[in-house]
Design goal:
This protein is an alpha+beta fold. The chain has one domain (10-148): Hotdog Thioesterase (Thiol Ester Dehydrase, Chain A). The chain contains 4 helices and 6 strands. The chain has helices at 28-38, 43-46, 48-52, 63-77; strands at 18-20, 24-25, 84-94, 103-116, 121-131, 137-148. Strands 1, 2, 3, 4, 5 and 6 form a 6-stranded antiparallel beta sheet that branches. A hairpin with a 4-residue loop joins strand 4 (103-116) and strand 5 (121-131). The longest helix has 15 residues, at 63-77. The radius of gyration is 18 Å and the shape is elongated. It starts with 17 loop residues before the first strand and ends in a 7-residue tail after the last strand.
């Protein structure tokens, strides 16, 4: 069974093109499940009493949980669905905490394009911001993706 292609082909991307995703609320369950999956049981994420004494005053989501949710939000938005061939790089900054109950979404802007004919498409570099419900940037960086080229029409 193959994945349906809903995403944009490399040729469909344009410099400075922007995307905004749907939002998702981060829950306590997300944090607990991510701790189990990753093995990261740091008290800042899993111990309410400990976290109360930190600069955040409460438990926060793992930074990598935020990045993982960002990847999922981009996939759900559809612009890479079925056309992304590889996620080849990330340069990422954790700018603020994601709290239990925060609702996050992404803004993405195409910052660079490079054809890669030998790979059947091209490289797309996205500037990505993760924003909370107050439109505060909590994470940001760049993602480098290899995207399929548009198939040749059949004869």
């Amino acid at each position: 069974m193959s994945s349906e292609i809903r995403g944009l082909y490399f040729e469909d991307y344009q410099a400075d093109q922007e995307f905004r995703t749907a939002a998702r609320t981060i829950t306590e369950t997300d944090i607990v499940q991510f701790a189990g999956l990753s093995g990261d049981y740091n008290a800042l994420h899993t111990d309410a009493e400990f976290a109360r004494g930190t600069l955040f005053g409460e438990r926060i989501a793992h930074g990598l949980l935020g990045l993982s949710v960002a990847s999922g939000l981009a996939a759900r938005a559809g612009f890479i669905e079925g056309t992304v061939q590889a996620f080849t790089g990330v340069d990422w900054k954790f700018k603020g905490a994601i709290l239990i109950g925060d609702t996050v979404h992404l803004t993405c802007r195409v910052s660079r394009l490079r054809p890669l004919p030998s790979m059947g498409g091209g490289m797309v570099v996205l500037d990505v911001n993760v924003l909370n419900q107050r439109d505060e940037v909590v994470q940001q960086g760049t993602w480098t993706l290899v995207i399929k080229g548009r198939p040749e029409p059949s004869e």
